Amino acid sequence: MATANTATYEAFGLTVRSAFDVPELPAAETAPDGRADVTITEERIPRPLSAASGSTFHAVTEREYYLLYDAATVRILDGKSIAVDPAPDVPSEVLRHVLVGPALNHLLDQRGYFVLHASTVSIDGRAVAFVGESGVGKTTTAMACLLDGHRILSDDVAAIALDDAGPVVRSGYPSMKLDPEAVEAFDPPVEPPEQVHSGRPRHFYGLRHDQPATPVPLERIYLLEDGETIEVDAVRPDEQVMALVDNTYTLGALEADGQAVSNFTACGEIVDMTEIKRLRRPRTLDMLPDVAARVQSELKSESC
């Protein structure tokens, strides 16, 4: 499953040396000393004895996580290494979805990022995050903004850092996971997916635009919900905090390793410095241009 030679990639501002071919990540130069911020290796990984039967996530400590999937067993250590034990004959695309998704996202948590289950875009130099339960349309809404000429920062997760000036979003990698039906309907500026598996409903399409090299200030968070018309409403402060808690990507890790209090504090800080609104819209493809236009008009009207 692993390649004969390791390759060096970049994701979320980190250099990643991988024993697996990951075409979704852009190539990066190898440092003269051969070091990288993150290493991905293939090795045998026994299931932790302390892991509950049937569980897909297990935290030994806040520095040692295990992902226990049918496709692979993954160990994530110290925010620096990802060890992978693939299942026999697992398709390459299925394994890559694990690597650039859950494995990398949990590693970001270990590196101190607040990892939010959201797709993010940059609009006029400001980050906008679309948050909601799985399948609510985070990526599709971000694609609508891409069609409107804006840049994708990250797909499915937002790596948020808190600094003195407020929360900022780090660009992820130049790929987004799209439904082929949406791609055919709108023809977004993306490259065809590579090494696809027919059993996957969505594939990684490469972005054609450059992503910001520096973190982008987080301006707005939209909580996505279904609705009959496009509506933007205010959200109560207490509801804002709980929405961020509920949509913390590494929620299982927080419950397992005792970081719930610090995560709640981070949610409060983000709420204090970022506007959070509820965005209701019909979940139909033909409404996407109107949704993107509404988001942009909201940002422009409130910056005047």
Secondary-structure-derived class: alpha+beta
Within CATH, the superfamily of the largest domain carries the name P-loop containing nucleotide triphosphate hydrolases
Provide mean pLDDT, rounded. 91
- Count of individual beta strands: 19
Number of separate helices: 7
**General shape:** globular
Q: What is the CATH class of the largest domain?
A: Alpha Beta
CATH architecture of the largest domain: 3-Layer(aba) Sandwich
Low-confidence stretches: none
**How would you name the oligomeric state of the polypeptide chains in this document?**
single chain
Strand content: 25-35%
Protein name: HPr kinase
Organism: Haloarcula marismortui ATCC 33799
Give a quick set of tags describing it.
seven-stranded mixed sheet; 7 helices; 304 residues; globular; Rossmann fold; nine-stranded mixed sheet
In short:
The protein has 304 residues and is an alpha+beta fold. 27% of the residues lie in helices and 33% in strands.
Can you offer a commentary on this structure?
By secondary structure, the protein is α+β, with helices and mostly antiparallel strands. The strands form 3 sheets. Strands 8, 9, 10, 11, 12, 13, 17, 18 and 19 form a 9-stranded mixed sheet that branches. The chain has a 7-stranded mixed sheet with strand order 1-2-3-7-6-5-4. It has a 3-stranded antiparallel sheet with strand order 14-16-15. It has 2 domains: 7-111, no CATH class; 115-303, 3-Layer(aba) Sandwich (Rossmann fold), CATH 3.40.50. The mean pLDDT is 91. The chain has 7 helices and 19 strands. 27% of the residues lie in helices and 33% in strands. α4 (237-246) packs across α6. It is globular, with a radius of gyration of 19 Å. It comes from Haloarcula marismortui ATCC 33799.
